[in-house]
Specification:
Elements (H helix, E strand, L loop, with lengths): L3 H6 L5 H11 L4 H9 L9 H18 L6 H17 L5
Length: 93
């Protein structure tokens, strides 16, 4: 997979959604927050980052098509986790 930061920089999301996620990064605690986000997504074949990216893509698809199952708070939580994980992950040479 390519660098997570590069992947995130290519996403086109509403400014207010990204802004809310960025505000949440300061409160993000991997040991507390990552597990609950991934509990329904757990797949041994994929890394946590891949699962988060897939969840975010699904949430974006639901949001953009006006799906009734869309959760704004879940979307912000997943985006917050992705941004935080990008800053926590070691830089690849």
């Amino acid at each position: 997979m390519s660098d997570l930061g590069s992947t995130l920089s290519t996403l086109k999301r509403p400014r207010i959604l990204v802004g809310a996620a960025r505000k949440g990064v300061g409160f993000y605690r991997r040991e507390r927050d990552l597990g609950p986000l991934l509990k329904s997504l757990r797949s041994p074949a994929h890394t946590d980052t891949e699962q988060l990216l897939a969840a975010e893509a699904h949430l974006e698809q639901t949001r953009s098509t006006g799906g009734s199952g869309y959760s704004l708070s879940s979307h912000i939580a997943v985006l917050t986790a992705l941004i935080a994980e990008a800053t926590l992950s070691p830089r690849q040479a």
